[in-house]
Specification:
Blueprint (H helix, E strand, L loop, with lengths): L1 E2 L8 E7 L5 E9 L4 E8 L2 E7 L16 E7 L10 H4 L2 E7 H12 L3
Length: 114
Amino acid sequence: MKQIEGLTNEASQLHHILLEDKTTAEITIAFLPSIQRWQIDISHERLTASGMLITNNPNFIRQYRHTAEFGLACIAVDGVDPFQIDDFSTGRVGLYLLEGTDLNYVEDTIIGQQ
């Protein structure tokens, strides 16, 4: 599990994440102040998804597990979904890339199914 670094308290952010297979996933995260939530858009050659809310979850893009060979985990130290603009920059919430054995571990051990 690799933490996605460089997340700030900017309301809109674009990040490029290098995957194990040497492809790049482009993620855009945006803070929505009217509902106090963060949302994410993902663009990759095997997955395009827009407007998903980021939730405290071991793989919040699990519904794409048969399409994409990666996952995204959101872990909040207090178990509460990200709701403040500075959640990532203060470290209260971390966003993590799941690949390979980490992704299998989440599916097999934490979620308990494939």
